[in-house]
Design goal:
CATH class of the largest domain: Alpha Beta
CATH superfamily of the largest domain: Medium-chain alcohol dehydrogenases, catalytic domain
Radius of gyration: 19 Å
Number of helices: 10
Distance between the termini: 12 Å
Helix content: 25-40%
CATH topology of the largest domain: Quinone Oxidoreductase, Chain A, domain 1
Number of domains: 2
Largest sheet: 7 strands, mixed
Shape: globular
Protein backbone atom coordinates (compact mmCIF):
# COMPACT_ATOMS: atom_id res chain seq x y z
CA UNK A 1 0.00 0.00 0.00
CA UNK A 2 0.99 3.66 -0.30
CA UNK A 3 1.89 5.80 2.72
CA UNK A 4 3.19 9.33 3.20
CA UNK A 5 6.68 9.51 4.68
CA UNK A 6 9.42 12.04 5.30
CA UNK A 7 11.36 12.30 2.03
CA UNK A 8 14.37 14.65 2.05
CA UNK A 9 14.54 14.41 -1.76
CA UNK A 10 11.11 16.04 -2.21
CA UNK A 11 10.86 19.85 -2.20
CA UNK A 12 8.60 19.85 0.88
CA UNK A 13 10.29 16.77 2.48
CA UNK A 14 7.16 14.64 2.14
CA UNK A 15 6.60 11.90 -0.38
CA UNK A 16 4.99 8.52 -1.00
CA UNK A 17 6.44 5.10 -0.34
CA UNK A 18 5.15 1.58 -0.89
CA UNK A 19 4.97 -0.15 2.51
CA UNK A 20 3.61 -3.40 3.90
CA UNK A 21 -0.07 -3.28 4.93
CA UNK A 22 -0.53 -3.07 8.72
CA UNK A 23 -1.02 -6.21 10.80
CA UNK A 24 -3.55 -5.14 13.47
CA UNK A 25 -3.12 -6.22 17.06
CA UNK A 26 -6.06 -7.92 18.77
CA UNK A 27 -7.34 -4.59 20.10
CA UNK A 28 -6.93 -2.75 16.78
CA UNK A 29 -9.23 -2.43 13.79
CA UNK A 30 -8.00 -2.28 10.21
CA UNK A 31 -9.35 0.87 8.58
CA UNK A 32 -9.45 1.72 4.88
CA UNK A 33 -8.59 5.41 5.04
CA UNK A 34 -10.73 7.80 3.02
CA UNK A 35 -9.58 11.20 4.29
CA UNK A 36 -6.82 12.68 6.45
CA UNK A 37 -6.21 16.11 7.96
CA UNK A 38 -3.06 18.12 8.64
CA UNK A 39 -1.97 19.62 11.95
CA UNK A 40 0.83 22.13 12.39
CA UNK A 41 2.79 19.89 14.77
CA UNK A 42 3.12 16.98 12.37
CA UNK A 43 3.86 19.29 9.44
CA UNK A 44 6.68 20.97 11.38
CA UNK A 45 8.04 17.54 12.36
CA UNK A 46 8.57 16.61 8.70
CA UNK A 47 11.41 19.15 8.62
CA UNK A 48 13.16 17.60 11.62
CA UNK A 49 12.35 13.88 11.48
CA UNK A 50 14.31 11.03 9.95
CA UNK A 51 13.89 9.97 6.32
CA UNK A 52 11.26 7.30 5.83
CA UNK A 53 9.31 8.13 9.01
CA UNK A 54 5.57 7.53 8.59
CA UNK A 55 3.44 10.60 9.25
CA UNK A 56 -0.11 11.47 10.23
CA UNK A 57 -2.43 11.68 13.24
CA UNK A 58 -6.01 12.16 12.01
CA UNK A 59 -8.03 9.89 9.73
CA UNK A 60 -11.52 8.91 8.67
CA UNK A 61 -12.52 5.80 6.76
CA UNK A 62 -14.25 2.42 6.79
CA UNK A 63 -13.51 -0.56 9.03
CA UNK A 64 -12.28 -3.47 6.89
CA UNK A 65 -11.44 -5.77 9.79
CA UNK A 66 -12.82 -5.22 13.31
CA UNK A 67 -10.70 -5.65 16.42
CA UNK A 68 -10.52 -9.30 17.48
CA UNK A 69 -10.83 -8.46 21.17
CA UNK A 70 -13.06 -6.09 23.10
CA UNK A 71 -15.82 -3.78 21.90
CA UNK A 72 -15.35 -1.78 18.75
CA UNK A 73 -16.93 -0.83 15.42
CA UNK A 74 -18.01 -3.65 13.12
CA UNK A 75 -16.84 -4.33 9.56
CA UNK A 76 -18.15 -1.71 7.13
CA UNK A 77 -18.65 0.97 9.79
CA UNK A 78 -17.72 4.52 8.83
CA UNK A 79 -15.33 5.82 11.49
CA UNK A 80 -13.05 8.65 12.57
CA UNK A 81 -9.84 7.94 14.46
CA UNK A 82 -6.54 9.07 15.86
CA UNK A 83 -2.99 7.64 15.81
CA UNK A 84 0.36 8.72 17.25
CA UNK A 85 1.75 8.35 13.70
CA UNK A 86 1.06 6.57 10.43
CA UNK A 87 -2.48 7.81 9.72
CA UNK A 88 -1.49 9.17 6.30
CA UNK A 89 -1.77 5.88 4.44
CA UNK A 90 -4.26 3.84 2.45
CA UNK A 91 -4.80 1.56 5.44
CA UNK A 92 -4.20 1.98 9.16
CA UNK A 93 -4.40 -0.23 12.24
CA UNK A 94 -6.20 1.88 14.84
CA UNK A 95 -6.92 0.98 18.48
CA UNK A 96 -10.63 0.40 18.88
CA UNK A 97 -10.70 2.85 21.78
CA UNK A 98 -9.40 5.58 19.43
CA UNK A 99 -12.28 5.19 16.95
CA UNK A 100 -15.81 6.57 16.85
CA UNK A 101 -18.64 5.70 14.49
CA UNK A 102 -19.75 8.51 12.18
CA UNK A 103 -23.25 9.92 12.05
CA UNK A 104 -24.76 9.45 8.55
CA UNK A 105 -24.72 13.19 7.85
CA UNK A 106 -21.00 13.62 8.66
CA UNK A 107 -18.71 13.31 5.64
CA UNK A 108 -15.27 11.70 5.75
CA UNK A 109 -13.70 15.12 5.14
CA UNK A 110 -15.56 16.74 8.02
CA UNK A 111 -14.74 13.82 10.30
CA UNK A 112 -11.02 13.87 9.47
CA UNK A 113 -10.87 17.48 10.66
CA UNK A 114 -12.04 16.56 14.16
CA UNK A 115 -9.56 14.33 16.07
CA UNK A 116 -6.54 16.38 17.11
CA UNK A 117 -8.04 19.85 16.85
CA UNK A 118 -11.42 18.83 18.24
CA UNK A 119 -10.17 16.73 21.14
CA UNK A 120 -7.66 19.43 22.15
CA UNK A 121 -10.34 22.13 22.01
CA UNK A 122 -12.74 19.95 23.97
CA UNK A 123 -10.19 19.33 26.74
CA UNK A 124 -9.31 23.03 26.92
CA UNK A 125 -12.94 24.16 27.12
CA UNK A 126 -13.71 21.60 29.81
CA UNK A 127 -10.88 23.05 31.92
CA UNK A 128 -13.07 26.11 32.38
CA UNK A 129 -15.83 24.19 34.15
CA UNK A 130 -19.16 25.99 33.98
CA UNK A 131 -18.90 28.68 31.27
CA UNK A 132 -22.46 30.00 31.32
CA UNK A 133 -22.33 33.80 30.80
CA UNK A 134 -18.60 33.82 31.56
CA UNK A 135 -16.02 35.50 29.29
CA UNK A 136 -13.73 33.19 27.31
CA UNK A 137 -10.86 34.29 25.07
CA UNK A 138 -9.64 32.13 22.18
CA UNK A 139 -6.38 33.18 20.51
CA UNK A 140 -5.68 32.05 16.95
CA UNK A 141 -9.44 31.85 16.50
CA UNK A 142 -9.36 31.42 12.72
CA UNK A 143 -7.39 28.15 12.79
CA UNK A 144 -8.90 24.69 12.90
CA UNK A 145 -8.54 24.34 16.66
CA UNK A 146 -9.51 27.94 17.36
CA UNK A 147 -12.73 27.76 15.37
CA UNK A 148 -13.78 24.55 17.14
CA UNK A 149 -12.93 26.07 20.52
CA UNK A 150 -15.09 29.11 19.73
CA UNK A 151 -17.99 26.85 18.80
CA UNK A 152 -17.69 24.64 21.88
CA UNK A 153 -17.40 27.64 24.21
CA UNK A 154 -20.45 29.22 22.58
CA UNK A 155 -22.43 25.99 22.96
CA UNK A 156 -21.48 26.02 26.65
CA UNK A 157 -23.03 29.48 27.02
CA UNK A 158 -19.82 31.50 27.25
CA UNK A 159 -19.32 35.08 26.10
CA UNK A 160 -16.68 34.33 23.48
CA UNK A 161 -13.95 36.70 22.31
CA UNK A 162 -11.78 35.54 19.42
CA UNK A 163 -8.39 36.93 18.40
CA UNK A 164 -7.37 36.71 14.73
CA UNK A 165 -4.48 38.12 12.73
CA UNK A 166 -6.34 39.25 9.61
CA UNK A 167 -9.56 41.29 9.20
CA UNK A 168 -10.77 38.80 6.58
CA UNK A 169 -10.99 36.15 9.33
CA UNK A 170 -13.50 38.10 11.43
CA UNK A 171 -16.69 36.74 9.77
CA UNK A 172 -15.39 33.18 10.08
CA UNK A 173 -14.76 33.53 13.84
CA UNK A 174 -18.16 35.14 14.29
CA UNK A 175 -19.82 32.30 12.41
CA UNK A 176 -18.05 29.86 14.73
CA UNK A 177 -19.64 31.53 17.76
CA UNK A 178 -17.40 34.45 18.74
CA UNK A 179 -19.44 37.33 20.17
CA UNK A 180 -16.56 39.74 19.60
CA UNK A 181 -13.43 39.46 17.46
CA UNK A 182 -10.23 41.46 17.89
CA UNK A 183 -7.71 41.76 15.06
CA UNK A 184 -3.93 41.89 15.28
CA UNK A 185 -0.79 40.01 16.25
CA UNK A 186 -1.15 41.12 19.87
CA UNK A 187 -3.93 39.98 22.20
CA UNK A 188 -3.81 43.25 24.14
CA UNK A 189 -6.88 44.46 22.21
CA UNK A 190 -8.92 41.75 23.94
CA UNK A 191 -8.35 43.26 27.41
CA UNK A 192 -11.44 45.56 27.41
CA UNK A 193 -13.71 42.51 27.12
CA UNK A 194 -12.11 40.67 30.05
CA UNK A 195 -11.00 39.71 32.59
CA UNK A 196 -11.45 36.14 31.41
CA UNK A 197 -12.61 33.07 33.25
CA UNK A 198 -10.90 30.90 30.60
CA UNK A 199 -8.33 31.59 27.89
CA UNK A 200 -7.53 29.04 25.19
CA UNK A 201 -4.07 30.11 24.03
CA UNK A 202 -2.14 28.65 21.10
CA UNK A 203 0.30 31.38 20.03
CA UNK A 204 2.87 31.32 22.82
CA UNK A 205 5.54 33.92 23.57
CA UNK A 206 4.40 37.48 24.21
CA UNK A 207 0.83 36.59 23.25
CA UNK A 208 0.70 34.02 26.04
CA UNK A 209 2.29 36.46 28.49
CA UNK A 210 -0.26 39.15 27.62
CA UNK A 211 -3.15 36.69 27.78
CA UNK A 212 -2.20 35.57 31.29
CA UNK A 213 -2.50 39.15 32.56
CA UNK A 214 -6.11 39.19 31.37
CA UNK A 215 -7.26 36.36 33.65
CA UNK A 216 -9.94 36.93 36.26
CA UNK A 217 -9.27 35.79 39.85
CA UNK A 218 -9.40 32.01 39.81
CA UNK A 219 -9.31 31.97 36.01
CA UNK A 220 -7.40 29.49 33.85
CA UNK A 221 -5.20 30.00 30.81
CA UNK A 222 -4.82 26.76 28.87
CA UNK A 223 -1.79 26.70 26.57
CA UNK A 224 -2.55 24.22 23.79
CA UNK A 225 0.53 24.86 21.66
CA UNK A 226 2.99 27.35 20.21
CA UNK A 227 2.55 28.58 16.65
CA UNK A 228 4.94 31.52 16.64
CA UNK A 229 8.21 29.63 16.17
CA UNK A 230 11.14 29.26 18.62
CA UNK A 231 10.44 32.69 20.17
CA UNK A 232 7.08 31.37 21.27
CA UNK A 233 8.74 29.34 24.03
CA UNK A 234 10.04 32.49 25.73
CA UNK A 235 7.23 33.90 27.88
CA UNK A 236 8.07 37.18 29.68
CA UNK A 237 5.47 37.01 32.45
CA UNK A 238 4.45 40.28 34.14
CA UNK A 239 4.09 39.02 37.71
CA UNK A 240 2.92 42.40 39.02
CA UNK A 241 -0.14 42.25 36.77
CA UNK A 242 -0.65 38.54 37.40
CA UNK A 243 -0.91 39.16 41.16
CA UNK A 244 -4.07 41.15 40.53
CA UNK A 245 -5.80 37.84 39.77
CA UNK A 246 -5.24 35.61 42.83
CA UNK A 247 -5.85 31.94 42.14
CA UNK A 248 -5.37 32.33 38.39
CA UNK A 249 -3.31 29.60 36.79
CA UNK A 250 -1.59 28.46 33.60
CA UNK A 251 -2.15 24.90 32.39
CA UNK A 252 -0.05 23.24 29.69
CA UNK A 253 -2.28 20.85 27.76
CA UNK A 254 -0.79 17.81 26.03
CA UNK A 255 -3.45 15.84 24.16
CA UNK A 256 -1.75 12.46 24.40
CA UNK A 257 -1.37 12.87 28.15
CA UNK A 258 -5.10 13.61 28.31
CA UNK A 259 -5.84 10.46 26.33
CA UNK A 260 -4.03 8.36 28.91
CA UNK A 261 -6.84 9.26 31.31
CA UNK A 262 -9.75 8.93 28.91
CA UNK A 263 -9.72 7.11 25.55
CA UNK A 264 -10.07 9.18 22.40
CA UNK A 265 -13.23 7.32 21.41
CA UNK A 266 -15.29 9.06 24.11
CA UNK A 267 -14.39 12.58 23.07
CA UNK A 268 -14.68 11.69 19.40
CA UNK A 269 -18.18 10.32 19.96
CA UNK A 270 -19.21 13.63 21.52
CA UNK A 271 -17.70 15.66 18.69
CA UNK A 272 -19.30 13.44 16.03
CA UNK A 273 -22.67 13.77 17.77
CA UNK A 274 -22.39 17.56 17.65
CA UNK A 275 -21.34 17.43 14.00
CA UNK A 276 -24.20 15.06 13.19
CA UNK A 277 -26.86 17.39 14.55
CA UNK A 278 -25.39 20.44 12.87
CA UNK A 279 -24.05 22.13 16.02
CA UNK A 280 -20.40 21.72 15.02
CA UNK A 281 -19.25 22.02 11.43
CA UNK A 282 -15.45 22.08 10.98
CA UNK A 283 -14.32 24.73 8.54
CA UNK A 284 -12.35 23.15 5.71
CA UNK A 285 -10.01 25.81 4.39
CA UNK A 286 -8.47 23.35 1.94
CA UNK A 287 -9.91 20.10 0.58
CA UNK A 288 -7.69 18.37 -1.98
CA UNK A 289 -6.27 15.04 -3.17
CA UNK A 290 -3.58 13.57 -0.95
CA UNK A 291 -1.09 13.71 -3.82
CA UNK A 292 -0.98 17.45 -3.08
CA UNK A 293 0.37 16.85 0.44
CA UNK A 294 3.58 18.84 -0.10
CA UNK A 295 1.91 21.98 -1.41
CA UNK A 296 -0.84 21.88 1.21
CA UNK A 297 1.65 21.32 4.05
CA UNK A 298 3.60 24.40 2.99
CA UNK A 299 0.42 26.44 2.66
CA UNK A 300 -0.50 25.46 6.22
CA UNK A 301 2.85 26.65 7.56
CA UNK A 302 2.52 29.88 5.57
CA UNK A 303 -0.99 30.49 7.04
CA UNK A 304 -2.50 30.85 3.57
CA UNK A 305 -5.93 29.59 4.61
CA UNK A 306 -8.14 29.48 7.72
CA UNK A 307 -9.57 26.35 9.32
CA UNK A 308 -8.43 22.81 8.55
CA UNK A 309 -6.71 21.19 5.58
CA UNK A 310 -8.23 17.85 4.60
CA UNK A 311 -6.93 15.49 1.92
CA UNK A 312 -8.89 12.72 0.20
CA UNK A 313 -7.18 9.37 -0.32
CA UNK A 314 -7.09 8.54 -4.03
CA UNK A 315 -8.79 5.30 -5.08
CA UNK A 316 -6.28 3.47 -7.29
CA UNK A 317 -8.62 0.55 -8.10
Amino acid sequence: MQAIVIDPQSPQRVGFRSVEPPAPRATEALVRVKAISLNRGEVVYRVQGEAGTRLGWDLAGVVEQPAAEGPGPARGTRVVGLLHSGAWAEQAAVPANALAELEPSVTFAQAAALPTAGLTALAAIEDGGSLLARPVLVTGASGGLGLIACRLASLAGALVVGQVRQPRSVPLAEEAGADRVVVGESVAAAAPFGPYHLIVEQLGGRALAEAMTQLAPGGTCVSVGVSTGPAGYEVPVDMARMRRAPGACLRILNLYHELEREPASRGLQRLVRLAGNGKLTPHLGVEADWREIGEVAQALLDRRFPGKAVLRISDRS
